Amino acid sequence: MRIWGVMSADTLRTENDAPLALYLHIPFCHRRCTYCDFNTYADMGDRFLPYTRALAKEIQATGRGERVMSIFFGGGTPSILPVALIKDILAACRGAFAVDPGAEITLEANPGTVDANKLSDLRQIGVDRLSLGVQSARSSELALLGRSHTFEQARQAVAMARAAGLDNISLDVIYGLPGQSLADWGVTLDATLGLAPDHLSCYGLSVEEGTPLAAQIRTGALAQPDPDAGADMYELAEAWLDEGGFEHYEISNWAKPGRQCRHNLVYWRNEDYVGFGAGAHSCRDHKRWWNVLAPDDYIARVTADDSPVANVEHIELGREMGETMMMGLRLSEGVAIRGFQRRFQRTLTQVYGRELEELEAAHLIEWDGQRVRLTARGRLLGNQVFVRFL
């Protein structure tokens, strides 16, 4: 079977090179949330089987035995797929790639879409990390966001996952909602920490055009989120999670020691990954490419042995350096000076000397001679830093 897309046999890595991360996009949901602008679709249960077959076919047509260190099922709501279909997708990955025995395999899920048997079956087929979309502990906020679960269902899902042997559980929550107070956010933080997660992602609400939430804000039905209140909520999360023994390893992500998301570290370190499925993105060999968005279009193309790739972008050196800085500065480890020079054959000061001096003078970054990192102020004003490198 030929290789689709933009990879060729001449450019594939050998098994001695850095391993890949695989992203698998499952675009299906029971219903779309009010804030969501991801490539997701509701009421498409009849596409589950043909989509899974197309996904497996794309994987098999692409892989050439390269080593893989992480697999991430994202969406959408991957947990609404039957376990048998998830098993088929993983089998395709293991057949086309050399998946490390200790590879991190993450599956995103929503409370209410999993039960004890399903979680046990997922663990048996190799899923070892569950990313659960909790979003809020307050019923009024869950309703505002268009979520279909309760916090009690989230609590039950975590308990069932632990009982099934899933000992690496990540929870997502959102702050900065319209009308949300610091005390409201404290309720969600306190309740979520009470679930004893291994990893916690705290995302500031982003109001995206074209979503129902944006329409409600535009018409005045909901208040515009207050950025100053959002900053206070972020600082509260930093303080509470630090006290709770979490490492703040990325701007929006905290983990217990050793529980950082290995898959997402690939993105933040601007390393190689390959995505499969409708709308999935890949980045490798100084190229970025992405598949067609619509599941029906994706299924039709793959079934007909046509490439699902919609477009390809060649990443010039300057942009790759800028993206490496932008993504790397999101991490607490920052950007290593020697690593940058080894990768690009240029020193940081040669490329970004003026930018680094100005950002340091503004107390947005710190530089210890080994690494460049954001300061606490820089984490709050990250976009003002990142734009300097792009």
C-alpha end-to-end distance: 39 Å
Domains, number: 2
Number of helices: 15
Shape: globular
Q: What portion of residues belong to β-strands?
A: 15-25%
Strand order in the largest sheet: 9-10-8-7-6-5-4-1-11
Q: What is the alpha-carbon Rg in Å?
A: 21 Å
CATH superfamily of the largest domain: Aldolase class I
Question: So what's the CATH class of the largest domain?
Answer: Alpha Beta
Tell me the helix content. Answer: 25-40%
Give a quick account of the main beta sheet: strands, pairing sense, barrel closure: 9 strands, mixed
Low-confidence stretches: 8-16
Q: What's the CATH architecture of the largest domain?
A: Alpha-Beta Barrel
Write down how many β-strands occur, each being a DSSP E stretch of 2 or more residues. Answer: 17
- Helices and strands: which structural class? alpha/beta
Taking all residues together, what is the mean pLDDT?
94
Question: What fold name stands as the CATH topology of the largest domain?
Answer: TIM Barrel
Short characterization:
The chain is α/β, with parallel strands linked by helices and 390 residues long.
How is this structure best described in words?
- With 390 residues, the protein is of the alpha/beta class.
- It folds into two domains: 20-268, Aldolase class I (TIM Barrel), CATH 3.20.20.70; 317-389, Orthogonal Bundle (Arc Repressor Mutant, subunit A), CATH 1.10.10.920.
- The chain is 39% helix and 22% strand.
- It is built from 15 helices and 17 strands.
- It has helices at residues 48-62, 83-96, 116-124, 139-145, 151-163, 182-193, 212-218, 227-243, 262-268, 295-303, 317-328, 337-344, 348-361, 376-380, 382-386, and strands at 20-26, 28-29, 41-42, 67-75, 98-109, 129-135, 169-175, 199-204, 247-250, 253-255, 273-276, 281-284, 287-291, 309-314, 335-336, 365-367, 371-374.
- Strands 9-10-8-7-6-5-4-1-11 form a nine-stranded mixed beta sheet, sandwiched between helices.
- A hairpin with a 3-residue loop joins β16 (365-367) and β17.
- The radius of gyration is 21 Å and the shape is globular.
